[in-house]
C-alpha cells in the first residue's frame, strides 16, 4: 500500500471511528476496502462482515452505526452511507485530488524501497545458428517486463540471457554449411538470419529423407544414414574442441551474436549477464560426477540421473546419457550453481515456455536434493506459444515470421497508414523514431496483454490499430495528453510552478474539480502503485496492460467531455485540470515503462 494513496488516506480517516472491539489495524482496514459495484454508491466500500463476531451484531447494523459515527460531511469524506453490510464512502474530490495529483504531476517515482533481495531473471535464450522470429518475442517482452517490474518493487534484479550455442542444431547447420553449399560466402548483412535458413534447410532435408525412407525409398535411407553420421561426427568434433571445426563454429556463432545484439538494441532490452551453453557443458559433466560420488545421483541402465518421485509420470531425471554426453538438464544444474556462486542470488526466475514445465520442476527438486537453499526460491514462469491467425508457425510450413521481416512490415504499414501524412511537416528523424516506438509498442503490448497461460494470435494489422486495446492506442492517448499541455502553453496557460513546489493553496485549486469524469480519472490514477505491486507479486505484466488500457479509456472520456475542456478553462479550474493532465501524463509513462513502451512526443 502506497502511503500517499487514497486507500491509505481512507483507512487513516476511517480507523478512528471503528469500535475498538473490532481489533482492526489501519493496514487491515485498508486491505478490506473495495470499490462499490455501482460508482454512484461511492468511491470506496468498507464491508462489515468480519466485525460481526467481535461486536456480536449483524453487519448491516454495524455499517449503519459506522456511517452515523462519521457524522456530517467533513475532512476527506463528502458522504458516508450504509447500504446493507457496507459503508459506502464518497470522497471530497478536491481534498482527494490534493493528496494524489501533486506527487504524480511532479514525476515522483513509484519505486518501492529496496528490499535487499537479489533476483536473477533469465529470459530470451535464443539458439545461435537459428533465426530469431516472432515467437521469440513473447519470451523477450515478458522477461524484460518482469525485470522492470521487480526493479520498481525494490528488488536488486540481474537480467540474464542464456544462449544455446552448442548442441545438435549446430551440427546440422554446420553440416549444411560445410558439405551442401557451393559458395559459403555469407551475405553482407542478416548473416545470423542466413544461418537460420541453412539450419532450416538441413532440418527439412533430413525430415524429407526420413519420410521417404519410411515409405521404402532405399536411396533416401542411405542419404539419411550418411547425413546422420556426418552431423554426429561434427558434434563430437565440437565437443572435443578440435581447432579446425572450432574455428568454423566461432566465426558462424559470431554472426548470430551480432544479429542478436542488433535486435536487442532495437527492442531496448539489455542484459547484465549473458551465459552460454558452451560455458557450462563441461562443468555440467563434472557436477554430475561429483554428486554421483556423493550418492545424490544414481546409475540406471548406464545413464546417470536422480529419482524425483514428486513428478509421478516421469520420476527419473536423466543427467548423463549412457555414452557419457550431457543433456539440457546437465547444463541447467551447472548454470544454476554458477548463478548462485557468481551473483549470490536469493531468487532465480526462469522465463521459458510451458512445454518445459516438467523439466524445471525436476531441476528445482534436484537442486534442493543437492543442498542449494536457493532451490526453494527458484521459479519457472511458463507461457503459451505464439500462433498466426491460420494456426501454429512451423519451419516446414514456411510460415515462420522472422524478426527482420516483422520489423520491416510493421514500420512500412505505419508509414503508409499513418506517418506518411506528416512527411514534409515533421523532421524525417522524428518520423523514423516515432515509427520505431509505435511498432515496438505494438509488439510489446501485443505480447504482454494476454496472460501467460493464454496463447497469442499474432495479427499485424490488428496490433497496429490506433483504435482498440493496442499499444498504439495507449501511445496515441499519451501523445494526445502531451499535446493538450503544449497547446495550452502556447497561449500562456501553463501549470503554475508554485503548485508543484507546494507554495500554493492546493486545496483551493483542486476544489475546482467537480465533474464525474474528473473524479473517475483521479480514482484511476490513484490505483497505479497498487497495480504495479500486484503485477510484481504475481509476475503478471498483463495486469499492467489491463490497467493501462482502462486508464487511457478513462482519460479519453475526460478529454471528450464538453464539461471538462482544459484549454477554455480559466483560473483555479484551469490550474486544477492542468494538474490532472500532468498527473496522467506521468502515470501513463510510469505504467508503460514497466512494459518497455515509450510514448512519442506527437502522433
UniProtKB/TrEMBL annotation:
EC number(s) recorded for this UniProt protein: 6.1.1.19
Gene3D superfamilies: Arginyl tRNA synthetase N-terminal domain, HUPs, Isoleucyl-tRNA Synthetase, Domain 1
The Arginyl tRNA synthetase N-terminal domain, residue ranges: 4-91
Main location: cytoplasm
GO molecular function: arginine-tRNA ligase activity
Compartment(s): Cytoplasm
Catalysed reaction, written as an equation: tRNA(Arg) + L-arginine + ATP = L-arginyl-tRNA(Arg) + AMP + diphosphate
Motif 'HIGH' region per record, residues: 126-136
Domain spans labelled DALR anticodon binding: 474-603
Protein keywords: Aminoacyl-tRNA synthetase, ATP-binding, Cytoplasm, Ligase, Nucleotide-binding, Protein biosynthesis
Record text on subunit structure and interactions: Monomer.
Family statement drawn from the similarity comment of this UniProt entry: Belongs to the class-I aminoacyl-tRNA synthetase family.
Annotated NCBIfam families: argS
The protein's name in its UniProt record: Arginine--tRNA ligase
Organism of this sequence: Nannocystis bainbridge
Taxonomic lineage: Bacteria, Pseudomonadati, Myxococcota, Polyangia, Nannocystales
Recorded name of the encoding gene: argS
Amino acid at each position: 500500500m502506497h502511503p500517499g494513496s487514497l486507500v491509505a488516506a481512507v483507512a487513516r480517516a476511517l480507523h478512528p471511528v471503528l469500535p475498538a472491539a473490532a481489533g482492526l489495524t489501519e493496514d487491515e482496514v485498508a486491505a478490506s476496502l473495495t470499490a462499490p459495484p455501482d460508482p454512484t454508491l461511492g468511491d470506496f466500500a468498507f464491508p462489515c462482515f468480519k466485525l460481526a463476531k467481535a461486536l456480536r451484531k449483524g453487519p448491516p447494523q454495524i455499517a449503519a452505526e459506522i456511517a452515523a459515527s462519521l457524522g456530517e460531511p467533513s475532512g476527506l469524506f463528502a458522504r458516508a452511507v450504509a447500504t446493507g453490510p457496507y459503508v459506502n464512502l464518497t470522497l471530497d474530490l478536491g481534498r482527494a485530488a490534493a493528496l494524489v495529483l501533486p506527487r504524480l504531476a511532479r514525476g515522483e517515482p513509484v519505486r518501492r524501497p529496496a528490499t535487499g533481495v537479489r533476483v536473477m531473471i533469465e529470459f530470451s535464450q535464443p539458439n545461435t545458428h537459428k533465426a530469431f522470429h516472432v515467437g521469440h518475442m513473447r519470451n523477450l517482452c515478458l522477461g524484460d517486463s518482469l525485470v522492470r517490474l521487480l526493479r520498481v518493487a525494490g528488488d536488486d534484479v540481474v537480467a540474464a540471457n542464456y544462449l544455446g550455442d552448442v548442441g545438435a542444431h549446430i551440427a546440422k547447420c554446420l553440416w549444411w554449411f560445410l558439405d551442401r553449399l557451393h559458395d559459403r560466402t555469407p551475405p553482407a548483412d542478416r548473416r545470423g538470419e542466413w544461418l537460420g535458413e541453412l539450419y532450416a534447410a538441413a532440418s527439412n532435408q533430413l525430415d524429407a529423407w526420413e519420410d521417404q525412407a519410411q515409405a521404402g525409398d532405399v536411396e533416401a535411407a542411405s542419404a539419411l544414414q550418411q547425413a546422420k553420421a556426418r552431423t554426429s561426427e561434427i558434434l563430437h568434433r565440437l565437443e572435443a574442441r578440435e581447432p579446425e571445426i572450432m574455428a568454423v563454429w566461432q566465426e558462424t556463432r559470431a554472426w548470430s551474436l551480432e544479429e542478436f545484439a542488433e535486435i536487442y538494441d532495437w527492442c531496448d532490452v539489455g542484459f547484465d549477464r549473458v551465459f552460454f551453453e558452451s560455458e557450462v557443458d563441461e562443468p555440467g559433466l563434472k557436477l554430475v560426477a561429483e554428486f554421483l560420488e556423493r550418492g545424490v545421483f544414481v546409475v540406471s541402465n548406464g545413464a546417470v540421473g536422480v529419482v524425483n518421485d514428486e513428478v509421478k509420470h516421469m520420476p527419473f531425471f536423466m543427467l548423463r546419457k549412457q555414452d557419457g554426453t550431457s543433456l539440457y538438464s546437465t547444463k541447467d544444474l551447472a548454470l544454476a550453481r554458477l548463478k548462485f556462486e557468481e551473483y549470490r542470488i536469493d531468487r532465480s526466475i526462469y522465463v521459458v515456455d510451458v512445454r518445459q514445465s516438467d523439466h524445471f520442476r525436476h531441476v528445482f527438486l534436484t537442486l534442493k536434493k543437492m543442498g542449494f537453499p536457493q532451490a526453494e526460491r527458484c521459479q519457472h514462469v511458463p507461457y503459451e506459444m505464439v500462433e498466426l491467425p491460420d494456426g501454429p508457425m512451423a519451419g516446414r510450413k514456411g510460415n515462420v515470421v522472422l524478426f527482420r521481416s516483422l520489423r520491416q512490415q510493421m514500420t512500412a504499414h505505419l508509414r503508409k497508414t499513418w506517418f506518411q501524412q506528416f512527411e514534409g511537416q515533421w523532421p524525417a528523424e522524428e518520423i523514423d523514431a516515432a515509427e520505431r516506438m509505435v511498432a515496438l509498442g505494438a509488439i510489446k503490448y501485443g505480447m504482454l496483454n494476454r496472460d501467460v497461460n493464454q496463447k497469442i494470435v499474432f495479427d499485424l494489422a490488428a496490433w497496429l490499430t490506433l483504435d482498440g486495446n493496442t499499444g498504439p492506442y495507449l501511445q496515441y492517448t499519451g501523445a494526445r495528453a502531451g499535446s493538450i499541455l503544449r497547446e495550452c502553453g502556447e497561449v500562456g496557460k501553463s501549470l503554475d510552478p508554485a503548485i508543484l513546489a507546494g507554495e500554493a493553496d492546493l486545496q483551493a485549486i483542486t476544489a475546482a474539480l467537480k465533474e464525474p469524469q474528473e473524479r473517475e480519472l483521479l480514482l484511476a490514477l490513484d490505483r497505479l502503485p497498487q497495480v504495479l505491486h500486484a503485477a510484481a507479486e504475481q509476475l503478471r505484466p498483463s495486469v499492467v496492460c489491463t490497467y493501462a488500457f482502462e486508464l487511457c479509456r478513462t482519460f479519453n472520456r475526460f478529454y471528450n467531455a464538453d464539461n471538462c475542456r482544459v484549454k477554455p478553462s480559466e483560473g483555479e479550474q484551469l490550474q486544477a485540470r492542468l494538474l490532472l493532465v500532468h498527473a496522467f501524463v506521468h502515470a501513463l509513462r510510469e505504467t508503460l515503462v514497466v512494459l518497455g513502451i515509450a510514448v512519442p512526443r506527437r502522433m
